[in-house]
Design goal:
This protein is about 10% helix and about 45% strand. By secondary structure, the protein is mainly beta.
């Protein structure tokens, strides 16, 4: 009765509380944009897969485990635990309004997490008989087509390596095909199968006689006695802070996010189309009392650039680089497909003591070993002198988490096979439900070697880095929230394009202002200073070191003038370059309009973009509207305009379609792109169509 009364009070006052007016995915999109700029393109897919799953498969609070709650963005460790404790104490949540009665939750936070949660009543699971598996099973089938116009040069120019049978450089058609099928029976049984053909790859002919260029699939059993999860097929796995073993989301330093540092943990099935960094084999997680045991083994082929030894005494080939792009369009790319074998195995043993919201403790030991059928020998450069070389490596680490009502402490220390060490330690302090403070220390040694690490940091790999990160999030008033962070870091050894040990700093601030009930103003400022080689003659062997400065100003206005209409406007300025010279400034302006019909399940999203960005250094990444499970984060550069339209409609209860069109026109060039991806003319169009069946 008391719980219903609290819920009634919040519903009564809900209309007087501020409701965020801007797009529900806007803040998450801004975090993606910032991190994509620092990621290599082949490392983008694992991060995007987790984030896309959040929008397509929201977490049902009434049957979510604490690990499921870790996947909800914007929540701190204390807020996740408060939510879990509330559900445990009061039972199922009946309405999203009820969340406002939980300590640390307010209308602003609820508005942020609402797109990523679901509140559905949980029914008793029937016996897994063949009849019930058919009757209560849920099926999702999705098919997607995409194509770019006009065709790129790779479909026209000849392949210089095909001397006997000259033809186009790209051996396949310009279409992109993708499908995924998923079956789910409550939270016990899951199965999935997916495939993708990239533009330029062959389809049911030549090097692709089985249709798609890449397939992924899995069968998963969960929550069966002591068996927490059993997966056969493709999977992802993360433990602790991801320093010893981590895949998936690692959003890095972004204002507005309470930094938890660790990716979503445990073993999870995967249908990722990332053709390089993935696991395929078997994984098992067992839970008994306070202990949890996890183990896995993965074995599959990988793309690589392989050189053959000159000496007859040397039997093994050498890998100059592992390739994760997944493209097999040309004869050269096809020749590098599946050239080496990768074997990875390991596991984790953890002990958890979590009696409630007042106190919690977890400690675990993680280990893994990986082997390649050839010797990894990257081209020698001074900056990669300490990179992993060989065919076998091992990593072992210890991770710990300690929860208190006002403090959450976490850390991990890891060691690689060459005795290199790395560690990370941090704390989140919540002196008041409206204020959160995060502090993270990290020290990744120059000798530390790990190809499967994904912890917080500035480098693309967790090595050769030391730093201190401080962040503050606060809701000062019901209409104003502020957040900011400062990251001070050093690199004890050389890096790519930095021929000396160096240091740097990065900071950012964000302010959210509720101007009116349905009008939200957002301001962000971000600055980063690092050392970089000064521009010199191409044949120069010695480079001077200079300060490289990046500054970004962003204004965002969200307005919901009507119930089913939302408007979003962004104006962004960016300048980047050597600090002691006058820096060029680029700008980008876009306007979003989203319309949802009240009677019919139809949504129309439109975006118009204007940009004037002088060079590559000032390029601006923008997270664009897409079809379900699709993502697009292009880097705008040059001068021109763009237009994007996404139409989605439900057809009955079981069918849904998406149509997406994108158009970009430049006023400062007569061609777009470079090399085999170059297209003639100053404009380019993209078309995507998608169809989904849910039964």
């Amino acid at each position: 009765m008391k719980r219903l009364f609290r819920c009634f009070l919040f519903v009564f006052f809900w209309n007087s509380l501020p409701i965020p007016g801007f797009c529900q995915f806007e803040e998450l999109g801004e975090a993606i944009e910032k991190n994509v700029e620092n990621l290599e393109s082949e490392n983008l897919a694992p991060m995007m897969e987790d984030l896309i799953d959040l929008t397509g498969k929201p977490v049902n609070l009434n049957k979510a485990s604490e690990e499921d709650l870790e996947g909800i963005p914007f929540l701190s460790a204390q807020q996740r635990k408060s939510l879990a404790a509330y559900i445990q104490s009061y039972g199922e949540v009946v309405s999203v309004y009820e969340l406002a009665t939980i300590p640390g939750f307010d209308s602003t936070l609820i508005g942020k997490i609402e797109p990523y949660i679901l509140i559905v009543q949980v029914y008793k699971t029937p016996s897994p008989s063949p009849r019930n598996l058919i009757r209560y099973g849920h099926h999702d089938l999705l098919v997607r087509y995409g194509e770019l116009f006009p065709q790129a040069a790779g479909y026209v120019i000849n392949d210089s390596e095909e001397l006997q049978n000259p033809g186009p450089l790209y051996q396949g058609s310009p279409q992109r095909y993708y499908f995924r099928y998923c079956y789910q029976w409550f939270d016990k049984i899951k199965a999935g199968f997916a495939g993708e053909k990239d533009p330029g790859e062959q389809f049911f002919r030549g090097s692709q006689p089985y249709g798609m260029d890449y397939y992924a699939g899995y069968v998963s059993l969960s929550n069966l006695g002591i068996v927490k999860n059993l997966i056969i097929g493709n999977f992802r796995i993360s433990y602790g802070q991801g320093l010893t073993l981590g895949t998936g989301v690692a959003l890095g330093s972004t204002p507005g996010f309470p930094m938890t540092s660790n990716p979503v943990g445990g073993i999870r099935p995967s249908l990722s189309m990332n053709e390089g960094n993935y696991f395929r084999g078997a994984a098992l997680a067992l839970k008994s009392g306070h202990f949890e045991y996890g183990g896995f083994i993965s074995y599959h082929s990988r793309d690589a650039a392989v050189t053959f030894p000159d000496s007859l005494d040397q039997e093994r080939h050498e890998i100059t680089s592992l390739i994760s792009s997944g493209y097999h369009r040309t004869a050269m790319e096809v020749g590098k497909k599946n050239t080496v074998k990768e074997l990875v195995y390991g596991g984790d043993i953890s002990f958890t003591m979590a009696p409630g919201i007042n106190f919690g403790f977890k400690v675990g030991i993680t280990g893994l070993s990986y082997h390649y059928s050839a010797i990894l020998t990257p081209a020698p450069h001074p900056y990669n002198q300490f990179s992993f070389r060989g065919c076998t490596n091992n990593n072992v680490g210890i991770h710990i988490q300690l929860r208190h009502p006002v403090c959450y402490v976490f850390g991990e220390v890891s060691r690689s096979g060459n005795n290199g060490m790395a560690w990370l330690a941090g704390a989140q302090v919540t002196p008041d439900p409206r204020i959160g403070i995060t502090l993270i220390f990290r020290n990744y040694g120059i000798h530390y070697q790990n190809l499967f690490s994904n912890a917080f940091g500035q480098n693309s790999i967790n090595a050769n880095e030391r730093g201190i990160y401080v962040a503050l999030n606060g809701s000062l008033f019901s209409w104003l929230s502020l957040s900011g962070y400062l990251d001070l870091f050093t690199f004890p050894w050389l890096r790519y394009r930095v021929d000396t040990p160096a240091h740097g700093e990065e900071f950012g601030v964000m302010a959210n202002i509720q101007v009116a009930r349905k009008v939200m103003l957002n301001f962000r400022y971000y600055q980063k200073m690092v050392k970089r080689n000064q521009a010199a003659e191409p044949d120069s062997k010695i480079h001077r070191i200079t300060d490289y400065l990046t500054s970004v100003y962003r204004f965002h206005l969200g307005w919901a003038p009507f119930m089913n209409v939302s408007l979003n406007s962004r104006l962004e300025f960016k300048k980047a370059g050597e600090r002691n010279v006058e820096l060029p400034m680029g700008f980008l302006l876009y306007q979003d309009v989203q319309i949802k019909t009240g009677k019919w399940p139809i949504t129309l999203t439109m975006r118009y973009t204007l940009f004037d960005i002088p060079d590559y250094n000032t390029r601006i990444y923008v997270y664009e509207p897409e079809v379900l499970y699709g993502y697009s984060v292009p880097a705008y550069q040059g001068k021109g305009m763009g237009f994007c339209l996404v139409f989605s409609a439900g057809i009955g209860r079981h069918y849904k379609i998406w149509l997406r069109g994108g158009y970009i026109c430049y006023t400062d060039r007569n061609f777009i792109g470079t090399g085999s991806e170059q297209t003639t003319g100053n404009d380019r169009m993209e078309l995507t169509a998608q169809f989904m069946v849910k039964l």
